[in-house]
Structure formats: structure tokens, C-alpha cells
Design brief:
The chain is of the alpha/beta class and 306 residues long. The protein is 30% helix and 22% strand. It is built from 13 helices and eleven strands. It has a seven-stranded mixed β-sheet with strand order 3-2-1-4-5-9-8. Helix 9 links the parallel strand 2 and strand 3. Helix 1 crosses helix 4. The chain is globular.
Length: 306
């Protein structure tokens, strides 16, 4: 794949950030959080139809060709540095990879030119795995795969992350998700458990969410009718911030910040696995409205009886 000039791409990535991030944001009221499971399941089926769209039917806000530059400008600022430090024995998992453009650009000469530090250690670079519900590979993917050493890149499609076993995917030093499964899953706690199962101890997961209550923002009343794109509620209906929930995960070190360039609140996360005894606070899905990304509400499950 021919890679666009990085300098020009940085400007484009910043200017186009809302288009990358923001689709038709369904905003349910708090009353909508009482939808029965049957309706949630029906909404999931409607969401699945979006994944299978092709050609002109693909929603303009369902982006499948994000460049590596947009990863660097959208995720926490140290993501590209972490990627640049990977060596040939390491592995990178990209979830919701679409066409896999970011992975292809990682193997290009321009990446090395823009990140000369650690180039000798990188050598032939890490092994990369693109994960996508639908197959959106292009000729560029196939040509690059043929030019690289066998097994250097792979593209998995047709199943959700939860449907792969750790034995199938192996372990990774780095995982990324730019408006992929973390923004779309209807089972956020299971998604996080699977991610952490796949990370090596010391490995990191970079992701983000649009239109959420940032960790640094003041709290709000549980009676508020405003809604965020992704919400977590305690048993009594009190809002729980996404970053606060992530920080309750056992064996995880979490960093959060808010992207200052976006009018719509975008919170970015790095979850670093610190040990193998991972525990993720369980969430129950109580609302799911199809979209790009969908609107979701979860409720913290009651702790299991001792």
C-alpha cells in the first residue's frame, strides 16, 4: 500500500476527527434503560446488518479504512511509541481493523523514517493480527501479505472476539481498538475479560469511547434525562464513569484522558495488564440501540454471595 505523507496526514487526521468518531448518536433517556432483554436482542440483530453492508450501503460514519496516523492522533499519545518499541518476537492485535490499513502502514518504510528510534530493535517488526467481523481486505492487503515473510500478518473475520479461544489467537504485547469492539459490543465486561486474557503480563490495550462522561467531569444526578453514548449505572441508578469502572478491574493499571480537540466528549484509555489473576466487574446490558456506534447502557451486577 502506498502511504500518504505523514505530515499532511496529521493535519487531515485532526480536521477529520469528528467524522471518524461520530455517527448518528442515538441518545436514549434513562427510562429506556428498562428495556427487556428480548428488545436488546432484536437491536443486536439490527446492528449486525450494518456490519454486512457493502458499497454505497455502508454508512458514511462506519469507517473501515483508518490510517495509522489516525490511530496515533486518536488514541492516547504514547500509542505510536509503544507500537514502535515492538520487536520481531512481539505481537500486535488490532480489533475492528476494517481494511487493515493501519497494519499495512506499520510495515511501510515511512513508519521507520518517522520513528527512527528503536529501528534496529524493530527489525522486521512485530507479527500483526487484524480482527474484523466482516472481511474488508483489499488488493493492498493481499499484496503486502505476499511480500512479507509468511505469517507476519494475518486477517481474521466472521466471528466476534468472544468467539475465539485464547489458543486460537495466542498472546499479544499490544492491542488496539479505534471505534471497534469496545465501542460496539453489547457485553462490555466479557469483551474486557477476553482482551486481558489475550495480553501478556505487561502488555497494553489502547482504546477510546465517544460521548461518555469523562473521569474529570463533575458528577450528575441519577434523575437526569440526558444520556451518553455508553453509560454504566450502579444498582441504584447512579452513574458510574467508564474510567472508574475500568479501574476496578483486578490486575490492571488504567490511564484515562479526554481528547481536547473534540466538542463531543471523547475519552481515551490505556489498560495495562499487571498480573494474570484478572477480574472484571460484571455488567448487565440493559439498553442497546443500533448505530455507528450504538447507544448502550449497562448496569453493574450485584456482587456474588460469599
Amino acid at each position: 500500500m502506498r502511504i500518504v505523507m505523514f505530515a499532511a496526514g496529521i493535519v487531515a487526521a485532526v480536521l477529520c476527527l469528528p467524522a471518524f468518531a461520530q455517527g448518528p448518536l442515538a441518545k436514549p433517556s434513562r427510562a429506556a434503560a428498562q428495556k427487556p432483554p428480548a428488545e436488546v436482542n432484536q437491536a443486536r440483530q439490527e446492528q449486525a446488518k450494518i456490519y454486512q453492508t457493502r458499497g454505497e450501503e455502508v454508512p458514511a460514519t462506519y469507517v473501515t479504512d483508518r490510517a495509522l496516523l489516525s490511530y496515533g492522533s486518536t488514541l492516547l499519545p504514547d500509542f505510536i511509541g509503544t507500537l514502535a518499541e515492538l520487536g520481531p518476537a512481539d505481537r500486535w492485535l488490532d480489533i475492528g481493523a476494517g481494511q487493515g490499513r493501519a497494519i499495512l502502514e506499520y510495515y511501510g518504510e515511512r513508519f521507520d523514517a518517522m520513528h527512527p528510534e528503536g529501528r534496529e530493535r524493530r527489525g522486521s517488526k512485530a507479527q500483526s493480527v487484524a480482527l474484523s467481523i466482516e472481511d474488508r481486505r483489499t488488493a493492498d492487503w493481499h499484496n503486502t501479505a505476499a511480500a512479507l515473510e509468511p505469517g507476519k500478518i494475518s486477517y481474521l473475520h466472521g466471528r466476534r472476539l468472544r468467539e475465539y479461544t485464547p489458543a486460537e489467537l495466542g498472546r499479544f504485547q499490544l492491542a488496539s481498538d479505534v471505534y471497534g469492539g469496545f465501542s460496539y459490543t453489547s457485553d462490555l465486561s466479557l469483551f474486557m475479560m477476553r482482551i486481558l486474557d489475550l495480553l501478556e503480563t505487561g502488555g497494553s490495550f489502547y482504546t477510546l469511547l465517544i460521548n461518555v462522561q469523562p473521569e474529570t467531569a463533575a458528577g450528575r444526578s441519577a434523575k437526569s434525562t440526558a444520556a451518553f453514548q455508553t453509560e454504566i449505572l450502579a444498582a441504584d441508578g447512579t452513574p458510574v464513569k467508564i474510567c472508574s469502572w475500568l479501574r476496578q478491574i483486578g490486575c490492571a493499571e488504567v490511564s484515562c484522558d479526554t481528547d481536547p480537540r473534540s466538542e463531543t466528549p471523547i475519552e481515551r484509555y490505556r489498560v495495562r495488564k499487571t498480573c494474570d489473576k484478572v477480574s472484571v466487574p460484571a455488567l448487565l446490558p440493559v439498553h442497546f440501540a443500533p448505530g455507528t456506534p450504538p447507544a448502550r447502557q449497562f448496569r453493574l451486577a450485584a456482587p456474588a454471595a460469599p
